[in-house]
Amino acid sequence: MNNIPFFSLKEATEKIREEIDEAIAEVIDNTAFVLGPSLERFENNFAEYCGAGYCAGISSGTAALHLALLGYGIGTGDEVITVPNTFIATVEAIAMTGAKPVLVDVIEESALIDPAKLEEAITPKTKAIIPVHLFGQCCDMDPVMEIAGRHNLKVIEDSCQAHGARYKGKRAGSLGDAAAFSFYPSKNLGAFGEGGAITSGDEDFIARIKGFRHHGQLTKNMHSILGYNYRLHAIQAVILGVKLKYLDEANSKRRNLAERYRKNLEGLPIWIQSEQEGCMAVYHLFPVAYPNKPELTEALDRANISWGEHYPVPVHFQPVFSELGYGRDSFPIAEKLMETSITLPMFPELKLQQVDDVCKVLSDVSSGS
Ligand SMILES: Cc1ncc(COP(=O)(O)O)c(C=O)c1O
After folding, report:
1. 186 burial class (0-12, 13-18, 19+ CB within 10 angstroms)?
2. Are 151 and 115 part of one and the same domain?
3. Does the C-beta of 160 come closer than 6 Å to ligand 1?
4. Where would I find the beta strands (DSSP E) of 66-195?
5. Is 230 among the domain residues?
6. Which of 14, 128, 161, 290 is deepest in the core (most CB within 10 A)?
7. Using CA atoms in the order 346, 348, 349, 352, what is the torsion angle rounded to 10 degrees?
8. Is residue 227 located within the same domain as residue 256?
9. Atom of ligand 1 nearest to the CA of 134
10. What are the pLDDT digits (tens) for 50-62?
């Protein structure tokens, strides 16, 4: 009987355990647990990795999105555009500033923001766009940046699922005005707890973000803006510093597994996120959509194969966002993809044989055998 996990951190963590122990010992020795040199070193390394210029470590991806919006002065009376097929945090962060989330539909092939739908969603109140690099693939950023430039809007990449992904050679985190990352443990670059970061090419902006995350102190003991306690802990920063060295290797293993999924599933009546021209995706998740989802999930359960849902309920169907006033068919592509998709096992240590076993179940179901 198969027993294929959806995700596991065990093997990857065991491999680097000694290095991690040494890194944590450094923080215990220098006792700079909050802010300080260990955090700064990671910020510099991560900014360089992304090709972004500057980075601020933040306590979570949600806090990073929230602060990036506040950093651009966005609040009550403003509108921010994003997509309905994202983790709730993207839209939560907009609402937390007092601004109104405005949603646009996605492109069916990629499940990513449709730049052709942006213009009709822009009003005089629009201040920013948050394209979400969902599942580890970058959005089509050239048209997004072009439209944003014409309307004087800021672009904040939601890069929470896209550490290391590339668009036309450039990495996520360097494509917009700023980007928000999550280091939640299951992410491609994951901490041993909560964590996040903001990257940007604008040094002054990152300096302001560092004030916001530290109770609004722009200079020591001067609280010039209403701030938060949104700092990334030094212990998480050094753990992330160790894991950053292995990120490209882990991402390339994910890409190999994705290629095997693609090859095995080719020609079946199953939707797969297509890799768009110019994109190098890092497969945080591997989603598939099939009209009879229960048939698929029951077959996977019978084969003892774990699966996930990212995310089955569109943001505009969530009770907390009912006041946005959207309904069924407001975003037909996102709704259909979300209601018919599941995510398959995907993590760097997954075996090609296990991918083949998963695909055999999908193939049997979709071909009716
Ligand atoms: C697309 C997206 N946005 C935002 C977040 C929020 O990140 P965090 O869980 O670190 O707050 C996540 C992570 O779960 C995410 O996947």
Report:
1. middle
2. yes
3. yes
4. 79-82, 100-103, 126-129, 154-158, 166-167, 170-171, 178-182
5. yes
6. 161
7. 70
8. no
9. 1
10. 999 999 999 999 9
Task: Report helix angle 37-50 to 234-244, nearest 10.
Answer: 40
Does the beta carbon of 136 lie inside 6 Å of ligand 1? no
Nearest to 117 by CA among 269, 332, 289, 324: 332
Contact 311 CB / ligand 1 (< 6 Å): no
- Residues 114 and 139 both lie in one domain: yes
Going by C-beta distance under 8 Å and a sequence separation of 6 or more, which residues neighbour residue 121?
81, 102, 103, 104
Alpha carbons 293 and 75: distance in angstroms, whole number: 40
189 and 312 together in one domain: no
Find out whether the beta carbon of 354 lies less than 6 Å from any atom of ligand 1: no
State the pTM of this model. Answer: 0.98
Confirm whether 2 is domain-assigned.
no
Instruction: Judge if 280 and 239 occupy the same domain.
Output: no
Phi, psi of 80 (to 5 degrees): -130, 130
Same domain for 223 and 251?
no
Q: What is the Cα–Cα distance from 35 to 27, expressed in whole angstroms?
A: 11
Axis-axis angle for helices 17-30, 234-244 (nearest 10)? 150
* CATH code for the domain of 305: 3.90.1150.10
Q: How far is the CA of 180 from the centre of ligand 1 (A)?
A: 9
- Cα 181 to averaged position of ligand 1 atoms, centre (Å): 8
Could you list the residue range(s) of the whole structural domain that residue 292 is in? 247-366
Could you give phi then psi for residue 82, rounded to 5 degrees?
A: -150, -160
Looking at the CA of residue 195, tell me the nearest atom of ligand 1.
10
For the segment 192-246, what is each residue's pLDDT rounded down to a tens digit?
A: 999 999 999 999 999 999 999 999 998 999 999 999 999 999 999 999 999 999 9
* Nearest C-alpha neighbor of 43 from the set 192, 221, 207: 207
Rounded distance from Cα 64 to ligand 1 centre (Å): 9
Q: Residue 97: which H helix or E strand, with range?
A: none
Distance CA 222, CA 83 (A): 38
- Specify if 79 maps to a domain: yes
Task: Return the closest-CA partner of residue 346 out of 242, 249, 250, 247.
Answer: 250
Which helix (DSSP H) or strand (DSSP E) does residue 219 occupy?
strand 217-219
